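Lecture notes, continued. The same structure-token format from the folding unit now serves as the input rather than the output. Read the line below as a description of shape only.
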């Protein structure tokens, strides 16, 4: 299982939200590049980056910061937040980003996902954010009518190879992740699954690894110091800590 330290970027800064609430934002660093290098020095092989302005408005606003992180760190980087056109995908991939994450566009334009998977193949991942059992969109500011579990199955049938699933109620709260949700997903889907939201302890990381999850995203627990990144990586299944080939 790969550990993906998270860097959420807003106005060029590394921040964290609570339950996706932009009014409950904490700034952790004015320099996201140094944050990325710190994660690398602790043993990270991959990063999960979200452009929060892009997620909210549909217009990515932090290309330069993300490009700097990609070029300086040399890590496997997956990026999400406002990626709703082929032009945006091309721009990110040209910066050295290895995988782009689609979210809102998958719900609002069903044909878009199929086209992008055909064109970019495994460079496309889908983020499915769950709020009260439904898929949340637009930076978690709106909730669609899509049943989350059924939507995960539909997405996998379209050829998507990686799904990132977040229980919004757990995100940024340091209250534990939704193990039951991931058990259900793992039993239904054979594609790559990445857990996100509320991972708080080394014990949870061990459980997720034993469940057969392919990755886990760590955010506030790292910034708050409740999980040590080196120890977290050590709790994953031996031999599975390397990201996909660049």
């Amino acid at each position: 299982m790969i550990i993906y330290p998270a860097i959420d970027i807003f106005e060029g800064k590394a921040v964290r939200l609570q339950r996706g609430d932009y009014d409950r934002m904490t700034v952790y660093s004015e320099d996201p590049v140094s944050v990325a290098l710190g994660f690398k020095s602790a043993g990270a092989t991959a990063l999960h980056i979200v452009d929060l302005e892009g997620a909210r408005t549909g217009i990515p606003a932090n290309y330069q910061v993300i490009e700097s992180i990609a070029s300086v760190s040399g890590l496997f980087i997956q990026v999400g937040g406002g990626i709703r056109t082929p032009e945006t995908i091309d721009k990110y991939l040209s910066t050295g980003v290895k995988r782009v994450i689609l979210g809102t566009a998958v719900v609002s334009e069903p044909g878009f996902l199929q086209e992008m998977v055909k064109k970019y193949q495994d460079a496309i991942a889908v983020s499915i954010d769950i709020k009260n059992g439904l898929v949340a969109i637009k930076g978690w500011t709106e909730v669609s009518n899509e049943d989350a579990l059924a939507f995960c199955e539909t997405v996998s049938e379209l050829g998507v190879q990686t799904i990132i699933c977040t229980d919004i109620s757990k995100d940024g709260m340091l209250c534990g992740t939704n193990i039951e949700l991931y058990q259900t997903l793992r039993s239904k889907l054979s594609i790559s699954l990445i857990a996100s939201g509320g991972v708080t302890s080394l014990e949870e990381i061990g459980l997720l690894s034993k469940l057969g999850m392919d990755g886990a995203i760590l955010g506030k627990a790292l910034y708050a110091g409740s999980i040590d990144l080196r120890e977290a990586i050590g709790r994953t299944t031996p031999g599975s800590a390397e990201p996909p080939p660049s």
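Point for the exam: The CA atoms of residues 58 and 82 lie 4 Å apart.
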